[in-house]
Amino acid sequence: MFDLSAVQSSLADFQLDGWLLYDFRGINVLAGRVLDIAADQIGSRRLFYFVPASGEPKKLVHRIEAGALDHLPGEKTVYLKWQELEKGVKQLLGAAKTVAMEYSPRNANPYVSRVDAGTIELVRGFGVEVVSSGDLVQRFEATLSDEQWESHFEADKHTQAAFQRAWIFIRDQVKTNGSVSEYAVQQEIMRHFDENGMTTYHPPIVGVGPNSGDPHYAPCEKSCASIRENDFVLVDLWAKIDRPNAIYSDLTKVAFVGNSVPSKYDDIFKIVAAARDAAISRVRDAFSTAETVQGWQVDQVTRDVIVDAGYGEYFVHRTGHSIGQETHGNGANMDNLETREERTILPRTCFSIEPGIYMPEFGVRSEVNVLVGKNGEVHVTGGLQNSVLALF
What we know:
Elements: H1 4-13, E1 18-23, H2 29-34, E2 47-52, E3 58-62, E4 75-79, H3 82-93, E5 98-101, H4 117-124, E6 129-132, H5 134-142, H6 146-177, E7 180-181, H7 182-195, E8 198-199, E9 205-208, E10 226-227, E11 232-241, E12 249-256, H8 263-288, H9 295-308, E13 350-353, E14 356-358, E15 363-365, E16 368-372, E17 378-381, E18 389-390
Helix pairs in contact: 6-7, 8-9
């Protein structure tokens, strides 16, 4: 539910004159979430909602969809012609000099950049400085309610159990039949989700040998490999409780289909685990000392461990991503590779830590989830894997 007092308090914290929220046909999903616009209520005309640092908000809506923002407080202006729209935007802004929008300079952070360049030009044309609303969005989209917090822990219980089911299934099938397909393991995990009231937007990754070295490999019924004794297997799975507003759990673990794990797998895993633990420590240290920490800083300490071990070229993605109602949420990512993530890690947010080393013959990733409590306490879910699991 939209909380005007909380938004205005945040505007004061960030020393902004206001927040201009804009949408057209659902292109700004962040504004839609903040303004409580349901997916089935998205219109076909441009709308603006301006929240000043103090005082009453203002709305600008099209005549055909004049009731689009009626659920929100504030004075309403209705436009029809494009000239009326431009005049209306100027009136919304009033004397504001610095306003936040879903914008990122040079599109450095595409997760925040939801407003088109032309609309930014329109606003700037009125002498207004536009800054990124990235941290504002986090406060009202990426922070978790108590119910969401509990839904993540509930999901974590079932996702961890899914690994146990997958490992037993692989072991039994290989011992009985000599092999099992990646796809069969994937579907066994999906049955586990279904039996435990969970949902996911995409089936999990099950990758054997070289396929584990592809971070986004996806087996399917017609294109998958067989898992046999002495194979290395990576499983990456994500799911949430099937109820409104629930939060995902997203985890990755690895195993060896045999009795004794060869050193070539274990040695790489130890490097990845050290990088993972360095990231967790960086977050914990920051919150224990009330230090402001940004996503890029967490990525960098993680990446440094892998680079120093001589495998930097094989770590080909960011350290982690925001987790919310979608697997990839709208909060700060742990990233200094694909973007320089300068959003602050906030209390009551959730994100993954998942460094990896991906080589042609096999790849290793270890993924856990981190939740920062309202008082700065740091929780790690998913279970810290400390070595490659031997399945026999």
